[in-house]
Amino acid sequence: MLFIPLPFVVALLLVVMFIVFLRSGDDVRTNRAFLVAIALCAVQSVLVGLRWGYGISETRYILPILAACLPPLVYIAFRGLMGVGVESRRAMFASLVLSPLLIVVLEFAFPTGIDLALIVIFVGHAIALLLLGRKGPDGLDEAQFASVASAHRALIIAAIALCVSALFDLLVFFDFEWAQGQNVAALVSNANLLGLLLIGLMAALAGKSKAPQTAVESIAELPPPEPSEQDRDIVVRIDRLMETQALYRDENLNLSRLARRLGLPSRQISGAINRSLGVNVSQYVNQLRIREACRLLEETEQSVTAIMLSSGFQTKSNFNREFRRVTGMSPVDWREREVWKLVSPNKTATRQMPDDRLKIVGK
Question: Residue 198 class from Cβ within 10 Å (0-12 exposed, 13-18 middle, 19+ buried)?
């Protein structure tokens, strides 16, 4: 019977994931570093299968080099969702070159230090990712507003995945030291599966994660700082821009583009909206999009998909999640409610949603 190592199955699933991302309309499709990272994981899984499934020991020279490339690629992928200067770009690509180069040097000079070097590389980049995410979703100013919250959660999962990989490298190191590598095959297989699980979580966050609290509930629990007069003026300018040019309909709108249109720093815009309205910029823009979607659902007979695209969303998962966050119901339920109101105008009180659900917080 033909023996198919488990890492080969993992590699196949990663290839399927790569194709799905490549054909999707999400930010990941245009983030080449993330796609390269998935492809690298697939190649690494194949080599792991050859090494521990068929005993091809020559792959042991390539595997640590490929492993050293993964953390810099993941970091570059998420750093690309922020404004990147020339110096930052040079530092990122220097890390992508120096990390595998260090492993090559150690293979010739000090092979026993490879595992420890990989642990440092993985943990170091995990810390760098967490530092990127400390600003919250508004720190990812190049991410589209519809998916910025999911991108931020994926960043945290990526940091956890790098730490878990470092932990398995440490276990492999100790196994070679204390048990002559008797448990390495099992450790590597489990690490491979766990890595796939974490990558899958990163991919599924947008559709599977629990919707965040409504803006009204968040403000009730944690009042924002008192806005300044400058904050209010900035919000007025943003409101005017949104109303006159319907800028929220731009599916590729992000904080960086909005900042360029207003001629203001991104941080100043996000701070003004947060202090004045109690929400982040992506929530503010998505509330405007949902308000437009509700109007189209009530006044037109367009399909839900057409309305989704017209209001500025690209994917159904983001649209449905944000619609529920703002209105408390699905787009289909919203339209059915409007039809029901027309049919039974005297019974709307029991099914009427509070009007303030569609109001932008603070207005």
Answer: middle
Predicted pLDDT of residue 190: 63
Provide the sign of the torsion angle of the four alpha carbons 295, 297, 300, 303, taken in this order: positive
Residue 85 is encoded by which pair of tokens?
């200067």
Is the model's pLDDT at 192 over the cut of 70?
Answer: no
Residue 140, helix vs strand vs coil: coil
Whole-angstrom distance, CA of residue 178 vs CA of residue 92: 36
Give the distance, in angstroms, between the CA of residue 56 and the centroid of all CA atoms in the same chain: 36
Give me the torsion for CA of 285, 287, 288, 293, rounded to 10°.
130
Q: What would the pLDDT profile of 219-271 be if each residue is shown by its tens digit?
A: 334 455 677 888 889 999 999 988 888 888 888 788 888 888 888 888 888 88
Distances (CA, A) of 169 to 160, 200, 294: 14, 21, 51
- Rounded to 5 degrees, φ, ψ at 153 are -65, -35
Distances from the Cα of 214 to the Cα of 159, 270, 322, angstroms: 27, 18, 10
Summary mean pLDDT of the chain = 76
Return left, alpha or beta for 328; rule: phi > 0 is left, psi -120 to 50 is alpha, else beta.
Answer: left
The secondary element (H helix, E strand) that includes residue 205 is: helix 184-208
How many angstroms separate the CA atoms of 351 and 338, rounded? 10
pLDDT digits (tens, 9 = 90+) for 319-338: 888 888 888 888 888 888 76
